Amino acid sequence: MSQENVELVLESFRLAEADDVEGLAALFHPEITATAVPEWPEPGPFVGRDAALAETKRLTDWGENRFTDIDVVADEGDWVVVASRWHVRGAGSGIATHFDVAVAVRVKEGRVIEWHNRWSRDEALDAAGLPE
Hints:
CATH topology: Nuclear Transport Factor 2, Chain: A
Shape: globular
Number of domains: 1
Strand content: 35-45%
Structural class: alpha+beta
CATH architecture: Roll
Strand order of the largest sheet: 2-1-6-5-4-3
CATH class: Alpha Beta
C-alpha cells in the first residue's frame, strides 16, 4: 500500500508539470484539503477538489514549470513527504527562478485527501505529524 501511495504522489508531480488538470482531478479525493506554503498570497485552505485544482492551476500556470531533485523524505502510514526543486519561468517576462519546497501528502482510498506545501522538509514532516 505504501509504495502505491509514493507512486501516486510522484504521478501527481508529473501531471502538474504537464499541466494535466484532468489527470490531477482523477488523483484528488473529492474532499481534498490543500494548503500553500506559509506567507503565500493565497494560503488556503483549499477545500474540495474544485478549489484544490484551481489553486494547482494557478501555481502551475507559468510559461515553464518543472520539478527536479525529487526526494521521498518519508513514507509512513497514509503520509508521503517529498522534497523537490520547483523551476518556473514566466510566460510573458521569460524570467526564471526556482524554489526548494517540500510537500506532505495524505492518501485515502487511493486518492490524495490532503496536500500541504511547505518551505522545508522539517515543516512538511511536521504537517504530516511525522518525526523529523
